Amino acid sequence: MSAQSMAILILIGSFFVMVLLRFPIAYAVALASLFTLLYQGLPLTTIVQQMVKGISSFSLMAVPFFITMGVLMGSGGISERLIALANACVGWMRGGMAMVNIVASYFFGGISGSAAADTASLGSLLIPMMVEQGYDDDFSTAVTITSSCEGLLVPPSHNMVIYATTAGGISVGSLFLAGYLPAAILAVSLMIGSYIISVKRNYPKGEKFSMMNLLRQLASSFWAIAAVLIVVVGVVGGAFTATESAAIAVIYSLIVSVFIYKGLDWKGVWKALEDCVDTLSIVLILIATSSIFGYLLTRLHVPTLAANGIINLTDNPIILALLLNLILLILGCIMDMAPIILIATPILLPIATSIGIDPVQFGIMVVLNCGIGLLTPPVGSVLFIGSAVGKVSMERVVKATLPFYICMLITLMLITFIPEISLWIPSLFG
To answer: Rounded distance, CA 80 to CA 76, Å?
Structure first.
């Protein structure tokens, strides 16, 4: 075995061994990189240099700002208003509360950009409401966790910023615009699945549709929805960068939560900022350690070797596209979202572009695959959160989620093989 092959085996092999042993991902990435550096006889200062380089990015500063915005808005009384707006839109249907859950996740995703925050915030309100109205608790939890993945696609999503930074040279504004239609298709797919189950189980309808109530709830939610408009319109229109828009959104969120909706006092603001620091520390450590891992992957020519190996299996672009999705889905079962984006993008993006998949389209595919991974054992963090919030065993939640997995996979296939779903809106804005 050559020295290069041995180094690759140490890097990737030790990483997956530590993942299976349930090491924290950041430690697994850092230790695997350390072992490889020691084997190659490289100076250990390389670790520090690459970690600092990995997080010394102006574009990456948007990530902590968007996370802070989501925490402030999520803690500021916005959830209730978005639920009321969703209820006014779709609550009249059979299984109305399930539809409300799905539509509210679409709205709330534009505020938080996090599936975990969506599940924790909306789930704590909607799951008890659904159970009280006669819905099964496992069904209610399954709807909540699957619809939370919409928030990963609806801008502003900090995971899209991470992907854009990792892929290099991809417009954050294009990714933001590209997420709207796939998220809407995912929502419709989940609503169809929920409606079929609701009819079969005779779940209740809500109140009759009222245009006056819809307009009233829309006016009440205006300040929350305006936060998303500020970010997206500002970035797409070229008024400011993604990082600048994120900083403005934090200030706006603070004003709305404290002075307009009055859902937060200053003590609550400090508590929200403490939660931000906890989340940011995890995300930034992952980005820093993944930087040295990515450096070693590039140094050892792993992306080229992987691309050649996969392409040698078949030259059929349809099979290659399915294979890319399969790899991402498998990684999603054992890893969290950010490290998958950071580690897999440099390896798989060249393969995707070689078969004609646009980098923006591939970004949407990566995010949705990772979102499905958040719902799958053994690592699925959103699955665990939903199980805890709904007070339902994980086994029952997984069983109830099976029909929704089908809905999500259908959406994934549509996004994979119909590029216009992801690229139509960005193309309208040039």
So the answer is: 10
pLDDT digits (tens, 9 = 90+) for 139-191: 999 999 999 888 888 877 778 888 988 887 788 888 888 999 999 999 999 99
**Residue 44: strand, helix, or coil:** coil
Give the residue among 130, 160, 155, 132 at the shortest CA–CA distance from 142: 130
CA separation for the pair 270, 275 (Å, rounded): 9
Q: Phi and psi of 44, rounded to 5°? A: -70, -15
Mean pLDDT over each residue of the chain, to the nearest integer: 83
- How many angstroms separate the CA atoms of 104 and 296, rounded? 42
8 Å CB contact between 300 and 294: no
Residue 205 DSSP symbol: B
- For 377-394, how does the pLDDT look when each residue is reduced to its tens digit (9 = 90+)? 766 778 877 888 788 887
Q: How far apart are CA 409 and CA 334, in angstroms?
A: 18
> Is 0.85 surpassed by the pTM of this model?
no
- Tokens describing residue 150: 């919409």
269, 258 contact by CB (below 8 A): yes
Q: Give the start-end residues of each E strand in 305-428.
A: none
Q: 139-176 b/e with 16+ CB inside 10 Å = b?
A: bbbbbbbbbbbbbbbbbbbbbbbbbbbbbeebbbbbbb
Helices (H), 133-171: 137-147, 150-153, 158-167
Q: How many CA atoms lie within 13 A of 109 on its CB side?
A: 31
Three-state secondary structure of 357-390:
CCHHHHHHHHHHHHHHHCCCCCCCHHHHHHHHHH
Going from N- to C-terminal start, the domains of the chain cover 43-428
Q: What is the DSSP letter of 41?
A: T
- The helix (H) or strand (E) run that includes residue 77 is none
What is the distance between the alpha carbons of residues 346 and 348, in angstroms, rounded to a whole number? 6
Give one DSSP letter per residue of 275-303, joined into a string.
HHHHHHHHHHHHHHHHHHHHHHHHHTTHH
